[in-house]
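Sequence in, structure out. First:
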Amino acid sequence: MNRTPQVSVIIPTYNEEENIIRCLSSIKKQKYSGKVEIIVVDNYSTDDTVKLAKRFTSKLLLVGKERSRQRNAGAKAAAGSWLLFVDADMELSKGVLRECVELTKNHPVTPAIIINEKSVGHSFWGRVFALERNCYQDASWLQAARFFQTKSFLKLGGYDQRLFAGEDWDITQRFKQEGFPLLITNKSYLIHHESSLSLIDSYRKEIYYIKNIHRYAKKQPLAFSYQGSYLYRILTWARSWEELLRHPLLTTTFICYKFTVWLLWVMKKKV
């Protein structure tokens, strides 16, 4: 194997002018000696996303509508032997690509790799959601792989375009079911900048997720039995009790918010 294989980083976008420069800049700053290809797959943004992305890459695709379709299109156009999928509101720590490639070299069977995430919020609700997400660091049962060997990814058919929620969990499970080990980074990480959505918009996003997650639950019932379990999540939150106690208002808010989302989920199942 080439000691420094080419990696293609694929970013699906839609109206991400506030985030795209930060994301692409972090890719350019990677401490990786191999070639890095940046592919932006845009869903016909109406803002300056494409214009800004052109400062960093000439490889731009226009593909709608859902993220799975965008990601798969990027993978098919990729020249790299490895693929990394990130979202526009993410920022890579400088060692992400290097650590991912090193993990593949040190393993006898080609792995799929989960990259730990650290969330930050810049508004009140962004801080609420960041506090919750940070409870899931190192919780591999709830995280999804983002780094794949290109030929293995394409052989498995990529992301399931019939899924509009849970598609990242699904491909992780399919890699696992095909005998690919799942590894997780322990040095590098992704910084997830939580959106500044209003409470109403956040609930709309949750409702969209609830309406569509049943397809994934039907396809991967065993995995969803714990990924969708609030008991598992509460136990995971409990591991971070010291951090939660340091932020009583944020903690109380996110627990109340998750409780109302759980009620929406229960009502949906009864319909």
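Second:
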Amino acid sequence: MQENKKIGVLFVCLGNICRSPSAQGIFQHRVNEAGLADYFDVDSCGTAPFNVGKSPDPRALTATEKFGYDITDQIARQIDEADYERFEYIIPMDRKNMMSLTAWQPKGYAGEIELFMKYHPNNCGMTQIPDPYHEGAEKFFPIIETIEQASEGLLSYIREKHGI
């Protein structure tokens, strides 16, 4: 990563309409609250192409709004090779997406690809952020709480690593 480049953080799930846009919105909110917006480039994407161009799932919009976050402007996209250059931290929500990301990783990628739950302060015995897509709306609320806690841990990790 170049010295003048912002710290790139990319959240990744399968379709980029539930977990990763929620994580992007929550993490960006935490960054802004800490007065660090000038240091970060935060985005999200999916590993699959089927939601490209779509807005977040209405249940994700409702759940994030209930917790005080706004993800309405996000549009789903699929990861591409340029993301490996742009983002120092690529944060998949689950092992399956992590496997895809590491398989597609260009030779020489110097960033970190780590499961989001690695940064959760007590990870509740979980290693992945569960996908609520095929569940009812009520399943989105605990996911948002988990993402909030993992976001705090990730931000602390990055701040310590970069001295900010």
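Remark: The beta strands are 7-13, 40-46, 89-92, 112-113.
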